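USER: Please consider what follows.
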Amino acid sequence: MSSRISRPVTQLSRRDSLRVGTLGLLGWSCSDLFRAQSAMAEQAGRPPATADSVLFVNLAGGPSHLDTLDMKPEAPVDTRGEFTPIGTKIPGLLACEHLPKLAGMIDRFTLLRGISHSTGDHPQGQAYIATGNRPTPALRHPSYGSIVTKELPRDPELPSYVAIPQTEWGAGFMGDAYAPFKTNATPSPGKPFSVRGISLPDGLTLDKVERRQQLLQKVDRAFREADTNSTLLEALDQFSEQAYRMITSTKTRDAFDVSKESQSVQSRFGADELAQSLLLAVRLVQQGVRFVTVTNQGWDTHLDNFDGHRKLMGPLDAALPAMLETLSEKGLLERTLVVVMGEFGRTPKINENAGRDHFPRANWCLLAGGGVRAGQLIGATNKDGTGPDDATDIKPDDMGATILHALGIDHHLEYFTRTGRPVSLVPYGRVLHQVFG
């Protein structure tokens, strides 16, 4: 395990931000900036990055592996379910009949199957895939977006970590200063998207905002004299600074306004919440947001699993290709790691309510961009889909190590909790090097 200790939060990040911003002003291309950032990472002792940002599509509730991308057509009827498998662009991979578009371009992803753990409830399962650490009552680990906010240079006018529209993921022991910015809403097609917290309410002028900011700074100084070590004050300080920058920044408001996208891009995305959320996510990545989560609810199909999955797979099948095509068209895919997964799979045996229950022993994940070698099928489950096959050993810890590795962050990097306890980011994870080209 590496003994390297986390650097101070602000010093290097701000310096890197200024250096990278200066290079941009000098007219350097995106490729030049990426190379400069990689050089800075090496100087700081970080592994070279293959990605600068992450777009994580969280299929909250847990999609059924057997009814999506890990079908078992030879299994008994009470396991294989109602759906018909179809061929895909990856040899040997069958997909559900309700994912025809994804099947036709899935060779632009790499699919990992047989991801296994033993955490079978939603909050703990979500915490596991958000952090790469098995949840424990003794310590709340920070989610990847919080780590990215601390470790990577960022644009001061934009939040580094955005959740569309909500997320259960948090900053853990790092404190709320590193929590995600939540949009709390999704865009509507063709309409300007107004996010509470970055728009000026009616009657509020920039002059009034400036006066309120000056008053707040006076109050802050008084609080600091009373308690200079409060994590709450640290969070409030960062939030107030960021809120002020975002409210007064045209760049911030434009970053969230999907109506400014070209008509050709907007028409690629459906009117449903998932599609519009992914359109916003792509725009935010383009504007410089480092980590974006899009939470797609509804996959917890204890009742009527097949009707529920049928309704959810249609929007997913349309939105994922639109997202990937847009990232590629904008020149973003090469440096954006796309992750698509839920917290677990669902039981092979169909229950008495025509549903499937929680099943952490088998799960899948789609990866694309960010240095991922596309078209791979890694890992598998056994013939009944009840667990990984004998050759597969992939844990959420490994996913966490791999995501951080892509961003050039050492997953053994140590942080200190407020009590002085040293904690490695993902101590039990291993980087899945076969994922990358």
User: Anything to note?
Assistant: Residues 305-329 form the longest helix (25 residues). Residues 69 and 95 are 5 Å apart (CA to CA). The mean pLDDT is 86.
